[in-house]
Amino acid sequence: MINGELIKRIRIERGLSQEELGNLLGVTKVSICGYETGTRTPTMQMFLKLLDILNVTPNQLIGQEIMTVAEGQEPYEFPITKQELTMIQKYRHDECFRMYVQKELK
Fold first, then answer.
1. Which is nearest to 89 in space by CA: 80, 78, 100?
2. Domain residue spans in the chain?
3. Which fold would CATH assign to domain 4-62?
4. Model confidence pLDDT, tens digit, residues 53-79
5. How many CB atoms lie within 10 A of CB 51?
6. What one-character-per-residue DSSP string does 32-92 give?
7. What is the per-residue pLDDT across 29-45, written as a single tens digit (0 to 9) for each?
8. DSSP 8-state class, residue 104
């Protein structure tokens, strides 16, 4: 499912109004408003156009990436998927894996 709040945030970051984005997509601003509020779902063709116009990945537009920040360093964004996060959480509590990683990092 497409995350309408993300569409809105990215549209605004790109300096586009709903009407301007609609014109680029060939739809009305009412359609864009519907995508952003979740009352309308774009077709696959429209979804692909959105990706191109907003210059984002499918995962970004459906909100499946998680941003992390390095501690003690300059902040940076590092996208990871929910699957990667699940794997990290699983292995974080695995004592054998933890000992292996600690050994490798020395």
1. 80
2. 4-62, 65-105
3. 434 Repressor (Amino-terminal Domain) (1.10.260)
4. 998 888 777 766 555 555 666 655 666
5. 14
6. HHHHHHTS----HHHHHHHHHHHT--HHHHHT-EEEE--TTS----EEEEHHHHHHHHHHH
7. 999 999 999 899 888 88
8. H
| Distances in whole angstroms, Cα of residue 16 to Cα of each of 10, 19, 31 | 9, 8, 15
The answer for residues whose C-beta is within 8 angstroms of residue 79's C-beta and 6 or more apart is 59, 60, 65, 66, 67
Residue 4 CB partners (closer than 8 Å, separation 6+):
35, 36, 37, 38
How many Å apart are CA 58 and CA 47, to the nearest integer?
9
